[in-house]
């Protein structure tokens, strides 16, 4: 009888939700931000949640996301969207904007980050997370990476970061340090103190630190082990702001390194904590999804339930790991209207999902009469400069991307088409040139022509279809008459290797005149990205 009553109650609840036009899931699936979304940081303002991730050399920089339920996240803007602020030309794809922290205090949002090999540590501010954001406040004498901000009860702001500029007691030892930040003067002031070198006497790469005050005590949460297999989250406790900070006996509080190399979610770490308006705690953290040992989607953002036991954050109690699927937070289910899979380029501006690699130095595109028109420029994507390439993040292991290109040339140096890009040393390009259609692969710095097929029509459909690690490229005069080119290729090209380390993968359009001036252009009628769950 009791089982029947429970069943009836659940049935009535389901009928009620359907009758009211709602389809509210009980669970959610990780990752919550799939694809290129490493180093997440999160904050709550009343009933709204905001999150940022690293962007490296992609522009606009620092994507800012908003959510009401911690599961559905909408891109609402970027911290840096003015081309005069950052110049990433000649930078390695893995440099640029690293590990942003987002915080809110007294009506102001703060983004603080490291511009690796392009200026150092800085912060920007806004009263609206959608922007506009201020110009950078560069912090002199702020060594290391991964800065974060914390306000104590007296209203003073404190900076935490890391450094490796000291005499080390063991290999890859790093220090996490703290100093007061005078926000009016825009500079660090007063004493600087090292808080910890990690949770053990052989801890490596202490970084990604965040400081909190919970139930009257200070909690220092940080990443350790490096952004790969040994990545982990550890915590330290103190009764006073300046320490001493004592390593928690439970450390690491989150890692997957003990699960073995074949576990499907790896490299978990670099976390941040947030408390909901209902008093519950959650954490975001980065991780990668492995496919036969490779990670074509690079580092993504995952969500974990957290409960505190004697001051220790317990991740997903009873499991202690990131779960692929779990009960969603007790918050109002608030999905948003996502951008359509097919971009017909009918707006006045590019949709927010599109990015450039490195900051554009000149206007090379325009949207006109439902087409994206790219002016061919001499720059190529191999040369660590901004080239005529527009891409969006690859977010799924199984996807199909297609575009319709109108392009004609009588010159051997002019080419335009579709690109799957990770770095200047690792990518695929499916291009139309003077002779026809050509598939090019660049892997570990070695560039080769996979296949060339004659084709003379000005219009051509180009398609890339991925399933796991396999990707197939095809082209055709119509969508019903597509021809494969190059057979099945491997996405290990855009997975981590000695060149592909920190950033993520993208897919989009690319055109170039290969070192020579050109007045030609390539026109794209539309671009469509679909995926299978």
What can you see in these coordinates?
This protein is mainly beta. Helix content is 3%, strand content 48%. The chain has one helix and 39 strands. It has one helix at 2-19; strands at 27-29, 41-45, 48-52, 58-59, 61-67, 74-80, 96-105, 108-116, 120-126, 137-138, 148-151, 157-163, 175-182, 187-196, 207-214, 217-224, 232-238, 246-247, 254-255, 265-275, 281-289, 300-309, 312-315, 325-327, 342-343, 356-357, 365-368, 371-375, 389-393, 398-406, 415-423, 426-432, 436-443, 446-454, 459-467, 470-476, 482-490, 506-512, 521-532. The strands form nine sheets. Strands 25, 27, 28, 30, 35, 36, 37 and 39 form an eight-stranded antiparallel sheet that branches. The longest helix is centred in the N-terminal third of the chain and has 18 residues, at 2-19. The protein is globular and about 75 Å long. The two termini are 39 Å apart.
Give a quick set of tags describing it:
eight-stranded antiparallel beta sheet; 3% helix; mainly beta; globular; six-stranded antiparallel beta sheet; 39 strands; 533 residues
Write a brief caption for the model.
The chain is mainly beta and 533 residues long. 3% of the residues lie in helices and 48% in strands. The protein starts with a helix and ends with a strand.
Task: Give the structural class.
Answer: mainly beta
Which runs of at least 5 residues are low in confidence (pLDDT < 50)?
1-21
Major beta-sheet overview: 8 strands, antiparallel
Q: Percent range for helical residues?
A: under 10%
Rg from C-alpha positions?
24 Å
What is the count of DSSP helices, taking H or I runs of 4+ residues?
1
- Mean of residue pLDDT values: 95
How many beta-strand elements? 39
């Amino acid at each position: 009888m009791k089982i029947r009553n429970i069943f009836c109650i659940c049935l009535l609840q389901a009928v009620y939700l359907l009758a009211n036009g709602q389809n509210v899931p009980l669970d959610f699936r990780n990752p919550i931000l799939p694809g290129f979304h490493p180093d997440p940081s999160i904050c709550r303002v009343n009933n709204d949640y905001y999150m940022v991730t690293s962007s490296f050399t992609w522009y606009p920089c620092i994507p800012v996301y908003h959510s009401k339920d911690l599961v559905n996240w909408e891109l609402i803007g970027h911290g840096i969207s003015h081309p005069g602020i950052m110049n990433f030309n000649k930078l390695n794809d893995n440099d640029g904007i690293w590990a942003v922290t987002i915080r809110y205090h007294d009506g102001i949002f703060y983004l603080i980050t490291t511009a690796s090999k392009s200026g150092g540590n800085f912060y920007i501010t806004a009263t609206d997370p959608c922007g506009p954001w201020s110009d950078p406040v560069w912090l002199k004498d702020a060594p290391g990476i991964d800065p974060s901000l914390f306000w104590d009860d007296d209203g003073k702001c404190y900076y935490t970061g890391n450094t490796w500029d000291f005499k080390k007691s063991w290999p890859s030892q790093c220090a996490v340090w703290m100093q007061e930040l005078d926000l009016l003067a825009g500079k660090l002031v007063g004493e600087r103190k090292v808080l910890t070198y990690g949770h053990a006497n052989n801890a490596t790469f202490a970084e990604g630190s965040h400081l909190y005050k919970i139930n009257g005590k200070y909690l220092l949460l940080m990443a350790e082990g490096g952004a790969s297999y040994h990545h982990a989250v550890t915590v330290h406790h103190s009764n006073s702001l300046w320490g001493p900070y004592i390593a928690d006996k439970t450390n690491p509080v989150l890692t997957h390194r003990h699960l073995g190399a074949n576990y499907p979610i790896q490299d978990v770490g670099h976390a941040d904590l947030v408390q909901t308006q209902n008093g519950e705690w959650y954490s975001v953290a980065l991780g990668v999804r492995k496919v036969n040992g490779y990670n074509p989607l690079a580092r993504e953002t995952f969500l974990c339930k957290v409960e505190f036991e004697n001051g220790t954050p317990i991740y997903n109690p009873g499991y202690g790991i990131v779960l692929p699927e779990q009960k969603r937070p007790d918050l109002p289910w608030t999905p948003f209207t996502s951008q359509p899979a097919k971009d017909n380029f009918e707006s006045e501006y590019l949709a927010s999902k599109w990015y450039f690699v490195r900051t554009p130095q000149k206007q090379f595109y325009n949207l006109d009469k439902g087409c994206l028109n790219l002016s061919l420029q001499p720059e190529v994507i191999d040369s660590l400069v901004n080239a005529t390439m527009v891409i969006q993040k690859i977010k799924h292991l199984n996807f199909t991307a297609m575009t319709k290109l109108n392009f004609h040339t009588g010159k051997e140096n002019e080419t335009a088409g579709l690109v799957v890009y990770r770095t200047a040393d690792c990518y695929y390009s499916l291009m139309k040139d003077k002779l026809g259609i050509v598939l090019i692969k660049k892997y570990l710095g070695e560039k080769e022509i996979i296949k060339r097929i004659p084709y003379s029509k000005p219009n051509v459909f180009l398609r890339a279809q991925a399933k796991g690690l396999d990707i197939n490229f095809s082209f055709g005069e119509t969508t019903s008459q597509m021809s494969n080119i190059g057979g099945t290729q491997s996405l290990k090209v855009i997975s981590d290797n000695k060149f592909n380390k920190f950033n993520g993968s993208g897919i989009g359009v690319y055109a170039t005149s290969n070192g020579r001036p050109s007045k030609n252009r390539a026109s794209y009628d539309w671009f469509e990205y679909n995926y299978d769950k």
